[in-house]
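Title: Prediction job returns without error message
Component: structure pipeline
Severity: low
Priority: P3
Assignee: unassigned

Description:
Job completed but the reporter wants confirmation the result is attached to the right record. Sequence as submitted:
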Amino acid sequence: MGCPHFIRWSPLVAIALLLTGSAGSHAATPGIYQVWGASRDVASRPYVHGGQIVLQWSDVEPSRGHFNWSSLYAQLDAYHAMGKTATVQINSTNGKPGWIWDVVARCGSVNGQAVPQYWNPAYLTLQSELVNGLAAAIRAYPHPETVALVRASPNAIGTELTMLPHAVSCTAAAPAVTVSTGWSPNVAHTYFRNVMGLYDSALTPDIHVALRAEAFISDGAPLSWLGSNGAWIMGTASDIDYNPSRDAFDVYARRWDRAGKTVSYWEPISYRGKHNLVSWNYWRILLELYKGVSYIAVYGEQIRHGGNPQYRAAFDFANRYAGSAATPETSPGAFIALRKGRGRTAGNLGQFMTQYAPGLTSTALSSGQGRHMIGPGRQRFGRYARRIAGHTSRSRMGFRLNNDFVAGVSGRRVVIGVWYLNGGHGRFRVSWGRSASQRHVVHKTGTGRWKHFTTTIDGSLLRGRLAHGCDISLTALGHSRTAFHMVEVRVPGR
C-alpha cells in the first residue's frame, strides 16, 4: 500500500505531507450512511453509500507521539475496495492511553469512564497532537477520498461527555500536575469549543470534518468555521417524535444546511421505546431532508431491514433528495410530507413545496408517536397525515412550488405523485391548472391501504394558476373524506 503504519507526528511532518500530497477537495455521495454496524452490511447493500470507522485513542497512540494507523489503513482499504466511503472518528470509550496520567491529573470517574483534568491546557495539547496525527495519516493515505468525513470527538469524559455531575477532587501522580482551576460548566463549554477548533484547524479545507452542533449552539464556537471550504456540522439523537431537548439542533441545521451555507451529517436517537420503527425510520429521514442534511446516518440494525420494501423505499427516497436542498433549479424533485407535529419543527416537512394555510384548509392527523397508525401499521406513511372533507370549509388543499424549481422544470416532463389513504369509495380531484385537461379525478376503492396516484405532465404547466397562486391542489368531491401523506413533483432523469 505504500503507507507507513507508524508515524511520529510533528509540525514538520504535517507541513511535508501538505506539500507532497494532500487529500484534495472531494465530496462523498450524499445519502444513507451506516453508523454502528458491520462494514460487511455496507458492502452488500447498494442503498448504503458508506459506513463508519471507529478507532480507540489507546490503540492508535500507544505511547505519546507514536501513532499506529494500521487499523485505519486496513479499514480504509476495505471501503476503497468496495467503492464506498467511511466516516472516521477517534474515541476513548474503551479507555484513554495509560500514559496520559503522566501528563494530567485524574478526577475520579463518570459512567465508568476515568475523568482527566481536561481543563488543564496540557490536555488540550494532547488532543492537538492526536488530531494532527490523524490529519497527517489521512493525507498520507493513497486514497484519501475514501474518507467521507471525520467526526470530531471531544474525548473528555469517555468520547462525548464533558459535563461533571458534581464537584470533583483531582489527584496527580508525578510527573503530572494539577491545575488550580476548578471545574464548572463554563470550563466544559470552553474546552468543547477549543477542541472543535483543533479539528477545524487541522483538517480543513482538504479533509471534511463535521464539528458537533453543540459547539455552535451551546459553546460559542464562531460561525466563521462553517462554510463551503470550512467545517461541516454533525448532529446526534435526531428524533421525529416530539423531543424538545433536540429540536433546537434541528432548527439550527435548517438555518444553515438548507440555505447551502454548510453541509451536515446527522445520526438518529436510540430506537429504544419507539413505536412502529418502519414509520419512525421513514419520517425521521423526511425530517433530515427538510433540515437540508446531506449525510443521513442510520443504525446498522435498521440498515439490515433494507430487504423490507418499506425500509428500502425510505432509503431510496433519502438517496434521491439528499444534497439537493440548496439547489432547487437542479433538484430531482419537490415534495411535501403532511403533518402538524409539535415543537420548533412543527408543521409539514417539505422541500421546494409549501401548503397554503394548512390549518385552515385541512385537518391534521397523528398516530400518537406511532401507537395508533393511520392506515396499516406495516406501511411507512401513517405516522402523520392531513385530511380534507367534501362540503366543509376544509375540502381543498393547495400547494405552491419554489419559483426557482418551477423555472428549472420548464419544458421538461415531470411526474406529479399523490399518496392517499384508499379508504371508502369517495373521490378527490388532483389539479395543476384550470382547464379540464389539467386535472384528474381519483376514485377510491376502499382497500384501506395507502396508495400512490401519479400523472406525467409538462413542467411548463406549473404556473401558479390555481386559487391563492397554487400550482397543485387536492379537492374532496361530494361528501368524501380522504387522508393524504405526500405530494411530490419528481423530475425524471435527475
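Comment from assignee: result matches the submitted record. The chain has a mean pLDDT of 93.
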